[in-house]
Structure formats: C-alpha cells, structure tokens
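User: Structure with zinc ion, tokens only please.
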Amino acid sequence: MAAEDAESPLERIARLELEITRALAERDLASDSDERSDGHHHPAEAATDADLRERYLRDTLRLRDQLERLGRARAAIAAGTYGICIDCGAPIPEGRLAALPDAERCVACQSLAARRR
Ligand SMILES: [Zn+2]
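Assistant:
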C-alpha cells in the first residue's frame, strides 16, 4: 500500500513503540495470572516453568531493549542525526531503516559490533 511507503521514520517509530508498549502491558497481565496459580504447581512442572519463566524474562528484556533503542532513534531524529551510523558516520540505507527503524549502525558496523559481544 502506498500509504505505508510514505510512512515517516517518526511515524514508524511511534507505531513500533505502541506495539511494544502493548506487548509489555499484556505480559504484565500474564505474569499476574501466573502468580495467582503458583499455589497448586506440581513439582514435575517446575523445570518447565523455570524454562518458560526464563524465556519470558528474556523476551521482556528484549522488548524493553528495543523500546530503549526506539527512544534513542527518536532523540536522533530530533537531533538530526537519525539514519547515520553511530560507528562510522556513513548513512544507513533507507531499506535497512524501513526494516529496522531503531538501527543505529550500518550493516558492516553492526556485524562487527555483534562479533565484539
Ligand atoms: Zn557504520
């Protein structure tokens, strides 16, 4: 749809922020009901629960992380530095920004940064 192509970076970021905020809110509700059912757990389920809980925490952290990066992207738009690689200063291709509005690095620098981790 043409309207989607015309979406500005700020609109993209706002949409993603809303999606993530909603996902996090749903998670909060889900963890509330988890705690309520904690009373009657079978010991055999404990390992699975721990796995689920760990995955749940990891996903939650990932979402919070993404929200933080979107906040930085928003600040970069305000500062006029959005779409510029924070490592090498090269412009990040529009296609990459469309797919990853919170991208802070060009593809080359991102793969270097990922290897450093
Ligand atoms: Zn770069």
